[in-house]
Each structure stands twice: as C-alpha cells, then as structure tokens.
Specification:
The protein is an all-alpha fold. The protein has helices spanning 2-49, 65-209. The longest helix has 145 residues, at 65-209.
C-alpha cells in the first residue's frame, strides 16, 4: 500500500512538472507573439506618423517620435522580460521543490522496496519453516496412527486374554463351589458316620458290661 501511494504521489509530481513545463513554453510563446506584435505595431506607427508629423515649436523643444517609441518599446520589452524572468524563477523554484519531493519519494520508494524485499525473504523463510513443521506434523500423525494401530492390536489381544482368564476363573469358581458342596456333603456324612460309630461303641460297651 505504501509503494502504491508513493507511486501515485510520484505520478502526480511528474504530472505537475509537465504542466509547469507546458506553462513556461506557453509563456515563452506568448512573449514571442507579443514581441512580434509590438514590433509590427511600432513599425506601423512609425510608417504612418514618421512621414506626416514633423512639428517644430519655437516655445518648446522638438520631440523625437522615434526616441519616444524606442523608449516605449524598451519599457515594454523590459516588462515582458521581467514577467518572463519571474515565470522562469517560479518555474525553477517549483521544479526544484518538485525535484526534491521526487528525490525524497524515490528514496522512500527505495527504502520501501528494501523493506519489501526483506519482508519477502522473511515470508519465504516462514514458508520453508511452515513446510518443515507440516512435514513433521505429518510424520508424527503417521507415527501416531501406527502406534494406535499397534496399541489397538495389543489391546485386542489383552482383551481376548482377559476374556479367556475370566472364563477360566468362572470355571474354577464353579469347580470350587462344587467341590465345597461335595466337601460339605462328605463332612456331613462323616459326622453322621462318627455319630453312628459312637452309638455302636456305646452299645458295645454297654453289652460288655453286662
């Protein structure tokens, strides 16, 4: 945006410079035209009055018309010369100011151009770094996907092992419960037999006493 603004300013200054050059050229042409017209008018007046008027007055000194016309021509030429000099001085001042502004704008453009080149370098470096980071992210994503796949497979194996162990544990628990029941039955039978043996023993002991 700064480069575009400075470019537009530079174009405007160049346009103003061209307009001033055209103005000076037009003033020069007007000067030449006025000078030519004045010379023609003076020559015409001299041709008309030079042959007709030759007045001499005893009471006053004679007036030389040629000298008067020469003075008028000189004053007119001096006036035109001053106007032209003033226009040329104004043109030089404005041209100098425009040149200084153009130089300043050129320096600013050069500075902005240098900054723009440096920014492009920074952008290129950041793009390279971004591509490197994206490549690293892609590699990490692939590694993560492989790790997840491996972990999923291991987890599936562990789940199958857990299911099998739970099944075996259920079987063992069922066997233990069955064995406990059988053991209880056997203990009950043992207790009953021990009671019967004790009864028989008392009976035998009592028979022996008799």
């Amino acid at each position: 945006m700064d480069v575009n603004n400075l470019t537009r300013v530079l174009e405007g200054l160049n346009g103003e410079n061209s307009e001033l050059e055209m103005l000076v050229q037009r003033l020069q042409e007007e000067k030449n035209g006025l000078k030519m017209n004045s010379e023609e008018e003076i020559e015409s007046l001299l041709s008309q009055l030079g042959a007709r008027i030759n007045v001499e007055m005893n009471a006053a000194p004679s007036i030389d018309l040629n000298d008067a016309l020469s003075e008028i021509r000189e004053e007119y030429e001096n006036l035109m010369e001053r106007n032209l000099n003033e226009a040329e001085n104004m043109f030089r001042e404005m041209s100098g100011e425009l040149s200084r502004e153009v130089d300043s704008s050129s320096q600013e453009l050069q500075s902005v151009g240098t900054e723009l080149i440096e920014m492009k370098r920074c952008v290129q470096a950041l793009e390279i770094e971004l591509q490197s980071e994206l490549s690293l992210i892609s590699a990490l994503e692939e590694t993560l996907a492989e790790t997840e796949a491996t972990f999923g497979s291991k987890l599936a194996e562990l789940q199958c092992l857990i299911n099998r162990m739970e099944s075996e544990l259920a079987t063992i628990r069922s066997n233990l419960e069955r064995q406990n029941y059988e053991y209880k039955v056997l203990m009950d039978q043992k207790t009953h037999l021990e009671m019967e043996i004790a009864t028989y023993k008392r009976l035998l002991d009592g028979h022996d006493i008799e």
